[in-house]
Amino acid sequence: GRVLKHLDKESLNLQNMKTLVLDEADRMLDMGFIEEIQKILSYAPKERQTLLFSATYPDEIITLSNSIQK
Question: Quick one: which of 61, 43, 14, 63 has its CA closest to 22?
Fold first, then answer.
């Protein structure tokens, strides 16, 4: 939520981002944050390294992984 506020207010710029780390991705999805994750990703450069960490690997994580990782 805080990251999105800064992105919306243009007080944070992700254009020079080289690496994106999503830790506890399974928990973020359990808590219903998929739309927020997707919005943040829309501000990030297409060419980046994306690391996704999850304690479990349910279908939702596989779908997220396939959509943001090569």
Answer: 61
Please state, in angstroms and rounded to a whole number, the distance separating the CA atoms of residues 21 and 8.
20
| Segment 13-57, tens digit of pLDDT | 999 999 999 899 888 888 888 899 899 999 999 999 999 888 888
Is this structure's pTM higher than 0.85?
no
State how far the Cα of 12 lies from the Cα of 33, in Å rounded to an integer.
Answer: 20
- Closest of 43, 41, 46, 44 to residue 64, by C-alpha: 41
Four-point Cα dihedral 66, 38, 51, 28, nearest 10: -100
